[in-house]
Amino acid sequence: MIIVGSGCAGLTAAIYAARANLNPLVLEGRQPGGQLSTTTLVENYPGFPEGIDGPQLILNMHKQAENFGARFSYAEVTDFDVSNKHVRVRVDDEWLDTQALIIASGASARYLGLDNEEKLIGHGLTSCATCDGAFYKNVPVCVIGGGDSAAEESLFLTRFASKVYLIHRRDQMRASKIMQDRVFANKKIELIWNTVVTKYIPNEKGEMRAVRLRNVQTNEERELPVACVFVAIGHDPNTKAYQGKLETDPESKQPGVFIAGDVADRVYKQAVTAAGSGCAAALEAEKYLSELES
């Protein structure tokens, strides 16, 4: 068995597969740990009443999978083929055959590509309000975007933040009407139309202090003090190697291929749901392999 990805879904699949003596090889990619590795404190993963650092949670799961016999490689899948009886993946310059493939390569949040971006992720810059919103109680924050995700993030953040600025580059939202109505009715949300963020401004500790805004119609610029920026402009599933060859939805139609985690999740995008789907994928793969042998 080959498992692609080493976030919550991939590592949970590895734990279950290794315990079932399926000899899984986990391809960790160039950035092991998935999105959780960029999160500082995780408070909503069951079993940790005081919370746990995202990277530490990943390390714990990694060690647990290793203890059961999972093997790991920092290799990355660059191509995919099902022309023979086995599933094949190209890993760097080598083709590997496998009887069962679990794709748990996750999704990457879209960011703006501004200076200091990578350094600020987890330090006042994030793409997940449900993950990090509770850390910003009674302080101003901003959300970037104009779709349903941006609306949902903004509404959720009003439970904690003193003020939520919703920054959108257009003069109207793309969100559904019901979500727009909820946003407009919430007095803690202030919409900033026709505006883009051009710069993140950290403080001396490297935490977010403010953003530089530019009005796209007037080119007027100003500084907006915020403690955190929530980017809600979408996620891109990490499925480049499979494009045109495989439907990477939760119910893959390709025998021997199983999908888990954020690579297919368009709704929840939580560590615990990713782990659950990794468990399910491993159990389905185990069932598939046992039927092959019978």
Overview of the structural elements:
The protein has 294 residues and is α/β, with parallel strands linked by helices. 26% of the residues lie in helices and 28% in strands. It contains 7 helices and 20 strands. The strands form 6 sheets. A 5-stranded parallel beta sheet has the order 5-2-1-9-20, with helices on one face. The chain has a 5-stranded parallel beta sheet with strand order 11-18-12-13-14. Helix 1 packs parallel to helix 2 (54-67) and helix 1 (8-19) packs parallel to helix 7. The longest helix is centred in the C-terminal third of the chain and has 23 residues, at 271-293. The protein is elongated. The two termini are 18 Å apart.
Cα gyration radius (Å)? 21 Å
Question: How many strand units?
Answer: 20
Largest sheet: 5 strands, parallel
Give the spatial strand order of the biggest sheet: 5-2-1-9-20
Give a nutshell description of this structure:
This protein is α/β, with parallel strands linked by helices and 294 residues long.
Record keyword descriptors for this entry:
5-stranded parallel beta sheet; alpha/beta; 294 residues; 26% helix
